[in-house]
Design brief:
alpha/beta, six-stranded mixed sheet, two-stranded antiparallel ribbon, about 20% helix
Length: about 150
Amino acid sequence: MRFVVQVVSKSDVKIHGEIKGSIGKGFMVLVGVGQEDDEAIADKMVNKLLGLRIFPDENGKTNLSLADVGGELLMISQFTLYADCRKGNRPSFIRAGAPEEAKRLYEYVVDKCRERVPGVDTGEFGADMQVSLVNEGPFTIILDSDDLK
């Protein structure tokens, strides 16, 4: 499982020109599900995500978590996080999770986040989406479940 986490002051996602989800201060998270992912991996990823202390404190040090700042989450499914570009110029997505299982695990991740964060919004799995954000910092972190084993 892979998360691209961006600290934002605001973010939204549109589908067919209509806003599907939006947040203020928080994390905009691109979520990629791999072939070998399961609930145990998803739980580890959610715990790591929600434990990240990457908001500045009163001294400007990255020391505060999402909960500490009352932040929100915008969770966007993105299978292209599993693009393999090692051979040729056309990416392969063979390591991305099968659509039905990936959707189930993406929704599982969203549900787990909603248990702990009051403001969680989403895009739509498999839809053509337009994501807008104001990245603060900019501050972007990549979480990969392979690094959590």
